[in-house]
């Protein structure tokens, strides 16, 4: 018994020895993390800010081309004639006046005012609002809305506009990210956890200090040192050409990569503006949910032919029900969605039936599901809205929620044809609402002081603006709207040539 008890304590010193290296390593890691945390906290207190990267690691352009050029006299900047297919003419003085407040608004065709033009875009209504509030100042609201322009095409424009003495940037972007053919080999198969980790690392002030010490040519994101896509100076949207709609297919990994690139670009614009000390406002875009049939739908590829046949039979039964039989119609829809809950048109049909039954909350949910399942995403995806709000909060950037604004002004709370003329473009009244919301945000930020009687002057200026537009302006808008609706449904007849191809690495 004594021998056994004497021999049992022998391994204890050895066990302690084995634990010491593990404990030391753990303490070393914790100490290192604590030092990094202290350094990071010190840099934040010191006012060090995250830095933008010098170039886009995913996209580059075959030619460098500025949006604005000087006139012959050298006194004004004008929209370059080379960009006239995508931008409306704008101009502003080379020498900015002492009483001038200069705003650059960046985005796609919504910013431009499509299907009409700049004259009834929210940029022009904003300028009239500012003029009504403070006639002693000159307000230059420069419309940089490019047809089909995605966020990665806006970053170079913002970089250029920094040379033109801006007082404010406004960014309304999100609907055009899926228009051009691009590859994202370095992003597609990257786990979501890794993307989130990289997103956090990009915001570290310590990373900014290291980045500032690197040579410019090494100042790229960790994702890639070279652009994966070389694009033409202006947009070559897939839908601009024959059979463009056929090129869209269900590809969740590719879509996720596109959305990650969108977040990168919005972050770039925020940091570029912050670095230059120029305020920037974000606008959360709005989409037509209830009056826009999805552009392309596909069944879940895992379905059998028997399951697809069953869905089609249920679909036919639902279509054959009159609206007086809406409950029965809904039963068929639900049976079909139990088999496939990813077919966009099927989900939209459920939403329309809920809308008829005045189940508006459910209808909105189904319409959003239909938008998200649309194989041809011409309306901003929900994760992109989330990115916009996350970045606004992270970098303390003011955000105007145009989607919520339109929802609040729509009786059933579902954005539709009341204030939108197609899948994404607001009506003239919708543009005025957005302009008012931006103006109010500028007042909240004390960028301008709003006098109590400004609305009467604003209304008068609006009437004069609308009366100055000839009937031809509205007729052109209606014609352009019909073309736009055909384009979105893949009805283009143009044939692409060698010069319109995207070059991917």
From TrEMBL:
<dbReference type="InterPro" id="IPR051532">
    <property type="entry name" value="Ester_Hydrolysis_Enzymes"/>
</dbReference>
<keyword id="KW-0378">Hydrolase</keyword>
<dbReference type="GO" id="GO:0004622">
    <property type="term" value="F:phosphatidylcholine lysophospholipase activity"/>
</dbReference>
<dbReference type="InterPro" id="IPR036514">
    <property type="entry name" value="SGNH_hydro_sf"/>
</dbReference>
<protein>
    <submittedName>
        <fullName>GDSL-like Lipase/Acylhydrolase</fullName>
    </submittedName>
</protein>
């Amino acid at each position: 018994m004594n021998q056994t008890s004497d021999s049992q304590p022998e391994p204890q010193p050895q066990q302690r020895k084995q634990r010491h290296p593990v404990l030391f390593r753990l303490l070393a890691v914790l100490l290192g993390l604590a030092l990094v945390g202290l350094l990071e906290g010190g840099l934040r207190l010191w006012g060090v800010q995250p830095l933008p990267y010098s170039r886009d690691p995913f996209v580059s352009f075959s030619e460098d081309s500025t949006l604005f050029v000087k006139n012959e006299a050298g006194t004004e900047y004008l929209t370059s004639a080379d960009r006239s297919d995508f931008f409306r003419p704008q101009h502003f003085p080379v020498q900015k006046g002492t009483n001038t407040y200069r705003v650059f608004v960046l985005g796609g065709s919504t910013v431009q005012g499509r299907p009409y033009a700049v004259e009834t875009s929210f940029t022009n209504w904003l300028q009239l609002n500012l003029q009504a509030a403070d006639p002693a100042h000159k307000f230059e609201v420069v419309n940089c809305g490019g047809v089909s322009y995605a966020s990665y095409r806006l970053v170079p424009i913002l970089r250029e506009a920094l040379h033109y003495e801006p007082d404010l940037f406004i960014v309304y972007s999100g609907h055009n990210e899926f228009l051009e053919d691009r590859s994202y080999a370095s992003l597609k198969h990257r786990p979501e956890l890794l993307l989130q980790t990289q997103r956090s690392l990009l915001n570290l002030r310590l990373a900014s200090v290291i980045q500032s010490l690197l040579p410019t040519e090494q100042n790229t994101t960790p994702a890639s040192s070279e652009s994966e896509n070389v694009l033409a100076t202006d947009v070559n949207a897939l839908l601009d050409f024959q059979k463009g709609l056929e090129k869209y297919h269900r590809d969740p990994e590719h879509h996720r990569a596109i959305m990650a690139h969108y977040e990168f670009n919005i972050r770039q614009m925020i940091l570029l503006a912050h670095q230059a000390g120029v305020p920037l406002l974000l606008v959360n875009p709005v989409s037509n949910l209830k009056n826009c049939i999805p552009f392309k739908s596909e069944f879940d590829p895992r379905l059998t032919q028997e399951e697809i046949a069953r869905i089609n039979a249920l679909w036919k039964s639902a279509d054959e029900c009159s609206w007086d039989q809406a409950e029965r119609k809904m039963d068929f829809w639900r049976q079909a969605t139990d088999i496939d809950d990813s077919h966009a048109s099927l989900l939209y049909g459920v939403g329309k039936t809920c809308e008829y039954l005045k189940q508006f909350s459910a209808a909105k949910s189904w319409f959003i599901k239909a938008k998200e399942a649309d194989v041809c995403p011409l309306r901003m995806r929900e994760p992109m809205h989330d990115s916009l709000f996350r970045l606004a909060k992270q970098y303390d950037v003011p955000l105007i929620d145009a989607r919520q604004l339109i929802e609040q002004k729509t009786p059933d709370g579902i954005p539709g044809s009341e204030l939108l003329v197609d899948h994404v473009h607001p009506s003239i009244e919708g543009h005025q609402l957005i302009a008012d919301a931006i103006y109010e945000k500028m007042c909240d930020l004390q960028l301008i002081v709003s006098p109590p009687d400004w609305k009467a002057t604003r209304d008068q200026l609006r009437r004069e603006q609308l009366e100055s537009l000839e009937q031809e302006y509205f007729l052109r808008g209606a014609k352009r709207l019909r073309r736009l609706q055909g384009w979105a449904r893949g009805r283009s007849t143009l044939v692409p040539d060698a010069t319109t191809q995207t070059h991917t690495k």
